[in-house]
Amino acid sequence: MITYTQMGKTGEKVSSIGLGTYGIRDYDQGEEAFLYAIDQGINLIDTAEIYNTEDFVGRVIRKVGREKLFITTKIHPKNLASKESALKSARGSLKRLGTDSVDLILIHWPHDTMNIGDQIRNIESVLKEGLSRYIGVSNFSVQQMEEGRNSTSSAEIVCNQVKYNLEEREIERDVIPYCEEKSMSVVAYTPISKGSISQSKSMKKLSGTTGKTPIQISLNFLMRKPSVIPIPKTERIEHMMEIIGSMGWRLSDKDSSLLSGDVK
Ligand SMILES: NC(=O)c1ccc[n+]([C@@H]2O[C@H](COP(=O)([O-])OP(=O)(O)OC[C@H]3O[C@@H](n4cnc5c(N)ncnc54)[C@H](OP(=O)(O)O)[C@@H]3O)[C@@H](O)[C@H]2O)c1
Prior knowledge:
Helix content is 41%, strand content 16%. It is an alpha/beta fold. It has one domain (4-192, 226-249): NADP-dependent oxidoreductase domain (TIM Barrel, Alpha-Beta Barrel). Helix 2 (54-64) links the parallel strand 3 (44-46) and strand 4 (70-75). Helix 1 (27-40) packs across helix 2, helix 2 crosses helix 3 and helix 4 (116-128) crosses helix 5. It is globular, with a radius of gyration of 18 Å. The two termini are 31 Å apart. The mean pLDDT is 96. It binds NADP nicotinamide-adenine-dinucleotide phosphate.
């Protein structure tokens, strides 16, 4: 059962889980898995200009119709050097995706020398040109998010896309509380630790009592925080079915704390 949540303050309903696309190798198999997920009700897809998967996402868009999907792409920070280069980069993404605009465009990671304000102003020009409906950031610290939020002229930064999984939970200390306070979404990448979820004693016990797999338990654990939207990647229909099975139920507080006990 697919459940839905809101992307930041946008009022847009996106599926509680989105589809990552980095590293898809078999596009035919991937398409089958994505069409299955979309047919079930998933509507959020994540790509980036450097992933080499915008063409693949374009193929999926043509099959199901643009209106069914909430598409996120990302600009490489070097392309944020000027408004012109940001627009050129976004137009390149749109061409590969075969659409006039994306729903959300992110700064893939902060540029290491350019100030945050300039990066934000340049990505905002993509919005002003109507090439994206919303802007967001990725791999930003709390300080960088704060600077970013103070630099926008009219747009809101709707999300921060960051690494978050059962074994890597540092963002629970700072990034998640900040995003919650500002009503931003936390889009969680590498949410299933690249497919190698720890088989701890507690995980095995929980799997036995809930009847859910470790992948489903892990994703459900991340989604306990209402701001968090995991975006696992799979190009296999059987893995997609397992991922979808992480929605529509909730780990109890007791079970979650059991899991918290054996990870850092
Ligand atoms: N913003 C950023 O800097 C950033 C960085 C990294 C990733 N991302 C985004 O986040 C997405 C997800 O992160 P990720 O790809 O790093 O890692 P991930 O989603 O944690 O793991 C993907 C791996 O898990 C496997 N897998 C998927 N479902 C499975 C299942 N049910 N059972 C066993 N294995 C399974 C996949 O293989 P199969 O395909 O064979 O199922 C794939 O090898 C990316 O695709 C990308 O869109 C963003």
